[in-house]
Every structure is written in structure tokens, then in C-alpha cells.
Design goal:
Blueprint lengths: L1 E5 L4 H13 L3 E6 L19 E5 L5 H11 L3 E4 L6 H6 L2 H20 L5 E6 L23 H20 L3 E6 L1 E3 L8 H10 L4 E4 L5 E6 H14 L5 E4 L4 E3 H12 L6 E4 L14 H6 L8 H14 L1 H7 L3 H10 L6
Parallel strand pairs: 1-2, 1-4, 2-3, 4-5, 5-6, 6-10, 7-9, 8-12
Antiparallel strand pairs: 9-11
Helix pairs in contact: 1-7, 2-4, 4-5, 6-8, 6-10, 8-10
């Protein structure tokens, strides 16, 4: 089987590529633009494998996408490429809409023209919006996006579904909860807090820190995507959750305890505009239809993640140089404290 992966140099995409090469017989072609979030260092473990090939390109580039899909004739496309960060989408929505919506359209068109046999569109629980406890979103829940990021993902989900309904393109959609693990860019909650804690810098908690997220270890997510790729039904949506809901403050406190740093590092800062209070989802459908279930317990996964960041300080230093500083100043510079 040959899989065309988009965004395979990012956090989850690179974990998926390492898993697909390491644990299956599949060949992988990785199409990635290498934005600030894309890093070929994440793929050193597979780069010399004859079943792996990297193509530098933009999913919005119609000609490039068309020729890759035409020439490679993949058995499946697994589409990760996205601008994936809510805060950046608030500061600068244009690239988010361009890549997440327009880029998905470009890929769907190429898949339609060249009759790709399977198209897995990787999406997020954020499309369901904020849910009151004890609700858990099933795949039937309405879309209720709050940020430009989640709206762009909800839009691309609908577009992907329309290609199934209208053109019979074999599309499957996955919606995962918040991922964590090695190689995550330190703009997201867990790696940002780990990096700051290591340096005794303030840990910026938005608002009251009582927003709830469901945490999914990245390898559990990738196994879920492989399960959907192998056994999912065409045209269906599959939630992939970690079954571990926690308020942000709990996550930060656990992380400080594991790094041996004091809680006095916590800074309550101005909240994110439009901040969703609570995400929660049911993965019952995926568990019922495949053998998949999340296996990583949060405390073990968090400790493992912290150890990875400790052992890979040079990786962190490289990705935090240059552009990261500009972003950090823009997002946190004027936030003040609450
Ligand atoms: P990431 O930001 O770490 O990586 C994104 C990758 O896409 C990078 O390698 C980047 O270079 C590439 N990319 C961006 N724009 C591109 C373009 N125009 N053309 C080609 N490549 C491009 O993202 P991630 O956290 O690994 O997320 C991957 C996917 O999973 C996204 O679709 C995201 O919406 C979804 N998702 C993420 C989470 C999470 O917690 N991170 C949860 C659920 C779903
Ligand atoms: P994030 O990792 O950006 O993921 P998402 O917004 O996609 O859920 O944020 C996770 C939660 O952590 C979210 O409620 C926002 C909060 N957060 C902070 O409190 N401080 C921060 O510096 C960041 C990046 C996030």
C-alpha cells in the first residue's frame, strides 16, 4: 500500500509517518511545505528507508498536488497538513483559511480527478465547540466552531463530506481531541509549559485555567488513524479521544510536579478571545467498529513527554529560535496578568 501523507513533517504527521514505516509495510510519500511547524529533523529515523520519500510542496499549489497524485497513484491520502494553532489563527487568520480550507479543496480535487481509493481527512474535536458537562460529542453533534482555526477545520470537514456525497470519493473523517507527546511545537499548552518550566520562566495560564481539554497521546491518535484507514467505513466520521478530561490548571500543576518546579511559576494572564470552555468527545464508535482504544495513561504519557523534551533540548532550542520569538512576543507580550 502506498500512502500520500500531507503535513508529515509536523507533530502528528511525523508520528504517523514513523509508525507507518516502522510498524506496517506501507510506502509513504510525505508532502509538506515546511512552515515554521514542519521540521525534517522529526523524520531522521525514516529518511533513509526506501519506502519513504519526501516532497517539498504546498497543498494549495494545484499543479504540484495534481502531478504528485497523478504520478504516485497512492492507495490512500492521509491529510494532516494544516495551520494547527488557535492562537495564531486569532492573530492572523488568512494563512489558516488558505491552507485548511483551500488546501483541502485542492487535495480533494486531485483525489477526485485521479480516483484515489481512500481519503482520510484528519480533523479535530474543536469543530463541535464548547460543551456543557457532562455532554460528550458524538459524530452526530452539530458543528459549532469558535475560532478561525476551528471554523476552517469545520469548513474543510464539510467540504470533504460533500466530495463523498456528491462525487462518491471514498472520504473518511477523523476528529481527535488535544494531542500531546514528543516533537510537538512549543506553542501548544504542554510543550510550551515544559519549555518554560525548564528555564524557570512564567507559565502563562489563560483566564482562570479551568477550561477543560481531553488529552490524547499522539501515538494513540496515530493508531486510531491507522484503524480508520484500514477498517473505517467510507463517508463516516470517527471521533478519537483520550478519555482523559482535565482542566488546564491540573495539567500545569502535574507538569510542574513532574519537572520539580514550584507552582509560583504560574501566571494567570488575559484569556484567549472566544476561548472554548470545555471539549469532550465520545470515541465509542471507533472502539466498537475497530479494536482501537487509547492505551497511554496521562501521567505516564506526560512524564515520558517531559523526559523527551529534557533529552532533546537542542531540538527545542532550534525550533524556538527566530520566528518563534516574534510569535511569542506578539501573543504573550501584551497579555498582562489577570
Ligand atoms: P503541526 O502544526 O505540528 O504540523 C502541521 C504540518 O503541516 C507542518 O509540517 C507544516 O509544515 C505542514 N503544512 C502547513 N501548511 C502546509 C501547506 N500549505 N502545504 C503543505 N504542508 C503544510 O500540526 P499537528 O498538531 O501535527 O496537526 C496535524 C493535523 O491534526 C492538523 O490537521 C490538525 O488540525 C489536526 N489535529 C491536531 C490536534 C492537536 O492537538 N495538535 C488535535 C486534533 C487534530
Ligand atoms: P492549545 O494547546 O493551544 O490547544 P487548543 O486551543 O487547540 O485546545 O491550548 C490548550 C488549552 O490550554 C486551551 O484551553 C488554551 C490553554 N492555554 C493556556 O492557558 N496558555 C497557553 O499559553 C496556551 C498555549 C494554551
Amino acid at each position: 500500500m502506498k500512502i500520500l501523507v500531507t503535513g508529515g513533517a509536523g507533530f502528528i504527521g511525523s508520528a504517523f509517518v514513523r509508525m507507518a514505516i516502522g510498524q506496517t509495510d506501507a510506502g509513504v510519500v510525505n508532502l509538506d511545505k515546511l512552515t515554521y511547524a514542519g521540521n525534517l529533523e522529526n523524520l531522521t529515523e525514516v529518511e533513509s528507508n526506501p519506502r519513504y520519500r519526501f516532497v517539498h510542496g504546498d497543498i494549495c499549489d494545484e499543479q504540484a498536488v495534481d502531478s504528485i497524485v497523478r504520478d504516485e497513484q497512492p492507495d490512500a491520502i492521509v491529510h494532516f497538513a494544516a495551520e494547527s494553532h488557535v492562537d495564531r489563527s486569532i492573530l492572523s487568520p488568512e494563512p489558516v483559511i488558505q491552507t485548511n480550507f483551500r488546501g483541502t479543496f485542492t487535495l480533494l480535487e486531485a483525489a477526485r480527478r485521479h480516483r484515489t481509493p481512500r481519503f482520510v481527512h484528519v480533523s479535530t474535536d474543536e469543530v463541535y465547540g464548547s460543551l456543557e458537562a457532562p455532554l460528550e460529542a458524538t459524530e452526530q453533534f452539530p458543528l459549532n466552531a469558535s475560532s478561525p482555526y476551528s471554523a476552517s477545520k469545520a469548513g474543510s470537514d464539510l467540504l470533504a463530506r460533500s466530495y463523498f456525497v456528491t462525487y462518491k470519493l471514498p472520504v473518511l473523517i477523523t476528529r481527535a481531541s488535544n494531542n500531546y507527546g514528543p516533537y510537538q511545537f512549543p506553542e501548544k499548552l504542554i510543550p510550551l509549559m515544559i519549555a518554560n518550566a525548564f528555564e524557570d520562566r512564567p507559565l502563562p495560564v489563560y483566564g482562570d485555567g479551568m477550561q477543560v481539554r481531553d488529552w490524547l497521546y499522539v501515538d494513540d491518535h496515530c493508531r486510531g488513524i491507522l484503524a480508520v484507514l484500514g477498517k473505517g467505513r467510507e463517508g463516516e466520521i470517527y471521533n478519537i479521544g483520550g478519555n482523559r478530561s482535565l482542566p488546564n490548571l491540573d495539567v500545569v500543576q502535574k507538569l510542574l510536579a513532574l519537572t520539580g518546579k514550584p507552582e509560583s511559576l504560574i501566571r494567570y494572564v488575559t484569556d484567549r478571545p472566544g476561548h472554548d470552555r470545555r471539549y469532550a468527545l465520545s470515541s465509542e464508535k471507533l472502539m466498537r467498529e475497530t479494536e482501537w482504544q487509547p492505551v497511554m495513561d496521562f501521567e505516564t504519557g506526560l512524564a515520558r513527554t517531559i523526559e523527551w523534551y529534557r533529552a532533546n533540548a537542542a531540538w527545542v532550542a532550534r525550533v524556538r529560535s527566530g520566528e518563534y520569538r516574534t510569535y511569542y512576543e506578539k501573543n504573550y507580550g501584551n497579555r498582562g496578568s489577570e
